Amino acid sequence: MDREKRPFDVIGQLAVLRRYARSLVRNGVDAEDLVQDALVRAYEKRASFRGGANIRNWLISILHNTHVDRLRAARARRSDAMDVLDEQSAVLPAAQEEAVHLSDIRRAFLALPEEQRAALHLVAVEELSYQEAAEALQIPVGTLMSRISRARARLRALGEEIPGEGTVAGDAGTPRLRLVRNADE
Question: Residues 25, 34: contact at Cβ < 8 Å?
């Protein structure tokens, strides 16, 4: 393998992979396992990596597919998927206002369905273009845009259920999570 022609720098992509994995599985230990499994797959399939291709998108796609494969295997074994939710409910809320604010945002984000959360994460957090995110998730761009639109609408709805106009879990009138609305609303 000629490294000059085919750079295969996965180390530089670890932070992106870890953030995305954490977004998908909601648990640091499971996220690290997912990243490791994806990197093993990437290493095994390194010959299929095209030299001019974007390695970040290629690795995100492998990570996403690894996650989907894990979910299918878990359903086949009929494992209990509620363990992750039980772990999160045992976490004590932080005393600092910023930590509470981030916790509110995280909770609202994690309440989204997995497909919407994955699409929104890739575009909003990883700053992939719609085209790049659609390719990573192996879905049409229109489907990606629809998932992002539904995710944003659901986040707006969750924000409205909490007391205080335009706030998420805070003092009435203290904006915590800015709600973005369509112009026609």
Answer: yes
- The number of domains in the chain is 2
Q: Going residue by residue through the chain, which has 185 residues, state the pLDDT in tens, using 9 for 90 and above.
A: 444 444 667 888 999 999 999 999 989 999 999 999 999 999 898 888 887 788 899 999 999 999 998 888 877 765 454 555 556 566 655 456 777 777 777 888 888 889 999 999 999 888 899 999 999 999 999 999 999 999 988 878 776 654 443 444 444 444 444 545 544 44
Displacement of CA 168 from its chain's centroid (Å): 20
Instruction: Write the CATH number for 174.
Output: 1.10.10.10
**In terms of domains, do 115 and 40 share one?**
no
pTM for the whole thing?
A: 0.56
